[in-house]
Amino acid sequence: MNYIIGVDGGGTKTVALLADLDGQVIARGVNGPSNYNAVGFEAACEALASAIDMARKDHPGEISALCLGLAGAGRQDDIERFQLWATEKFPGTAVKIVNDAEILLAAGSFAVEAIALVCGTGSIVYGRTTTGELIRAGGWGYLFGDEGSGYSIGVAALRAVMQAHDGRGPSTLLTELVLERRGVSSPPELVRSIYGAESPRLEVASLADLVEQVAEQGDTVAVAILEKAARELAQTIAVVYPKLDITASPLVVTGGTILHGAYLKAAFYRACETLGLKFTVVRHVSEPAEGAVKLAQILSLSGIH
């Protein structure tokens, strides 16, 4: 039997969906992060291969087409490197490598102009014009950007805890919850706990849900962190928006930080309204890999290898 595979390779996890040639998803495989800017090329390929193998485990057969939607693969040489790996790994399979915006827009079923927001471990905004041109803002990684992301929220939480400990900032409910999450008894112990972790960036980003939790309880420090993150996300969209040369645009949103963050999500839409950003429709996409399946199906039907 012939199958197609769509993959969402992100900064937190890699999801592979195995589907029949009609695009019906049959199996799902999950592995660790495959953003090679964060984990390196070899580790990214291992995560991709493992997720695909997991999806294929109980379904032997030929893979007609494979689409990899990869966070961090924005340059042509990045795409070519993964293209070479995939064609060698899956000989005889039609392979398409795109960035994560392409699969997100495909999952949202928007064929032409639209804006895509990814807010998970990292963050990025893409706009696609009526001519199909992709315009991006943000997404420069945790050292250079990723404003409003899970990582930036986590960093802000850690700084707030340490400032409260020093007396440089107000007390916050975050202190108790962060200490409990990290299994330590005092703020200074967080330094070794975080820096000594196998993946400090992911550990920091995982604290974003605690900020949501205490913001819902009215903690002013947590509220300020999320309000700032929301403004930064909206401001990034505001940079892309006028370049689409349209009066209103569809918006596709994905990423666990914003999809699972009720306060951040509401604050983000308030910030967009303040900036005068209007959307014809908003779609929340929890499984961007479904967009990769759609692109793999198109590839399979085209017969291009």
Walkthrough of the structure:
The chain has two domains: 2-107 and 287-302, Nucleotidyltransferase, domain 5, CATH 3.30.420.40; 114-284, Nucleotidyltransferase, domain 5, CATH 3.30.420.40. The chain has a five-stranded mixed beta sheet. The two termini are 18 Å apart. Helix 4 crosses helix 13, helix 5 (150-166) packs antiparallel against helix 10 (220-240) and helix 10 packs across helix 12. Strand 4 (62-70), helix 3 and strand 5 form a beta-alpha-beta unit. It contains 13 helices and ten strands. The radius of gyration is 20 Å and the shape is globular. With 305 residues, it is of the alpha/beta class.
CATH class bucket of the largest domain: Alpha Beta
Uncertain stretches: none
**CATH topology title of the largest domain:** Nucleotidyltransferase, domain 5
Compute the number of strand runs.
10
Mean pLDDT: 90
Order of strands side by side in the largest beta sheet? 3-2-1-4-5
CATH arch. level architecture of the largest domain: 2-Layer Sandwich
